[in-house]
Design a protein that fits this description.
Elements: H1 2-27, H2 32-54, H3 60-68, H4 74-99, H5 124-145, H6 152-170, H7 180-190, H8 192-197, H9 200-219
Helix pairs in contact: 1-2, 1-4, 2-6, 3-4, 3-5, 3-9, 4-7, 5-6, 5-9, 7-9
Amino acid sequence: MNSVKKYIAEFIGTAILVLFGCGTAVVSGGNLILTSFAFGLAIVAGAYAIGDISGCHVNPAVSLAMLISGKLSIKDFFGYVASQIAGAFAGSGLLYAILSCTNLGTKALGANGFDGYSATGLNMTGAILVEIILTFVFVYTILGVTAKVERAHIAGIVIALTLTFVHIIGINLTGTSVNPARSLAPAVLLGGEAIKQVWVFIVAPFAGAAVAACVYKMLNVGCAAETKPTKKSKK
């Protein structure tokens, strides 16, 4: 029963992330700051709504890092990923339905892209490199801030700000994925070139997350800095 609750929480959290993040990208005309903060604020909402239930991964790449780090079982990994993908399709479906009622149309659902679908004309190689780097930074931060229980009260804010941070540079390059589920759903609904390019935004985030988890295990685990108390001077 606890696993079912976790999967439902991941479904809801991912749907909210995709609806509000990708939705803001579309209705704001791709405004960099508004879109970046929309994704970040969606994480704030999710972290404090479902964080105690599932950890609020809402991202298959994050779940992969948790699996590699030993914080998630194989069974839950597949349950989380399935729930996240389903949630992403729910969020994209809701966005599609909303946009179909406007004069904006449904030609844009916040899909990621490169070459002619990148605001800066970034090529495929560049897109792979960018997504690996951005996902590495995002996931490495998550692993660090969630490592200690005493940081729990700030974890949601730190993770949200980091997601905002990577979006600020990434939006005009690839549209910023760092999340295979968030990329897959809009691409499938749009079809065409979006579906042809989506493999980059699935493979690269998974690669970045795996590297982040391995680096964290190598550098951080068992190597927390210890500060020695200073001796009080005698008067």
